[in-house]
Structures are given as structure tokens and as C-alpha cells.
Design brief:
- This protein is an all-alpha fold.
- The protein has one domain.
- The chain is 83% helix and 0% strand.
- The protein has 10 helices and no strands.
- The chain has helices at 2-33, 41-56, 62-80, 85-90, 96-114, 118-139, 144-162, 166-188, 193-212, 215-232.
- Mean pLDDT is 80; it is low at 25-36.
Amino acid sequence: MPGRFYRNVLLTCVMAVLVASCGKQSERARAARAAQTDIPPTLQKIAQRAEAIIAIAPTGDWPRIYAYSRDIKDAWLDYKHPTVSTWSARFRPPGAIFVQELDAAVAALYDAEAARDPTRTMRAANDISAAALDLFEYYHPTDGPDMRRLAVLQRRVLIDSAAGDLNGASRTLGSLDQMWQRVRPSVEDRTDAEVVRALEDSIAAQQAALATGDRAALTASAQDTLSLIDQMR
């Protein structure tokens, strides 16, 4: 019983972090959407719904999750097989490798929600968000998607931690650190040095928490990292 109580408390904390993170990102996404006219509206809808699922999955609101999943599936089918000729001429889908990645993530989402598994549902929705970002980059190459991918990886660390998969969280944090080292030079050119140092300290704090198995400290440090990523964007 104590173990189950601890997991529930931790999941509640993770839910609060993800809700706050996705809420901030949605506000920024709405502001940026007008400038990203070269991104198909269907992909924007898929990314929106995926982030909404991440935020509500821990609450067990399965009717809303099912509705958002249907929206994702319908939008994805419309993207792959557009029925509007002007849309089809303007937005040419990329190669099959991009399509297969999101196909697999959508299938995983349906499997997870059929089992009513909040952790798997969040993980699949996060994978959909990541795949959508790859497609965003295809239509609208910018530095922005790199920061969004950092947020995707950070959410994955939180999800793995809440599921008790510290090995998975450690691998994902390693990928996050590698990506951060790659994008750091361009970020330093437009971001305050103190914010950059704070993000590196936050990543290091997560690594230390993983080394000791302290999931509460990991969640707190991950929240700091998500906030810093949001500032940099």
C-alpha cells in the first residue's frame, strides 16, 4: 500500500508539471501559428491534441482522451490523403520514413488507451508530438523545433520516472543532454548566459537524482528544466 500511495503522489506531481508545461507551450504555439503558415493545419491539430492527451491522461478522463485520439487519427488520415486539391498542391507530404514514424505512434496510442494505461498513453502521445515536430521541421526549418524536442525528451524523462523506469529515464536524459550540447552554441547567441548555466545545472541535478534513485528530486529538477526550455523558446 505505501508503495502504491507513493506512486500515486509521484504521478500527481508529474501530472502537475506536464499540465503546466503543455499549457505554456499551447499559449506560445497559438502565438506562433500565424507565422507558421507553411505548416499544414492538420499537423498543428495533431500536435495540439497530443499535448492535451499528455496533460489529461493521469486524470483518467478516458472519454476526452478517446475524443482527442479520434481527432489525431482523422487529422493524420487527412494529412496523408488530402481531399482538398489546393491543400494537396501546397503541402506535399515528405518521404515514407516520416509517415511511418507517426503511423507507429498513433497505433501505440490506440493500444495504450484501449488498455486504459495512463503511462503508456502519455508516452505514445509524447511520441506523436515528437513525430509531428519532425514534420514541422520539414515544412518550416527553424531553430525552434530543437527546443521543442528538448521539451519532448524532458517530458519523456518524467513519464519514465513516474512509471518507475529509471533506466529508461536515464537513457532519455542522456539523449536530452546530447541534443542540448548540439544546440547550445546557437542558443547562447540569443539567450542570457545565466539561463544557459541554470539549464545545465538542472540537467546535472537530474543526473544526480537518477544516480541515487530519488524520483521526487528528479521530478523537481525536470520541472525546472522545462521552465528554462520554455524561457529559451
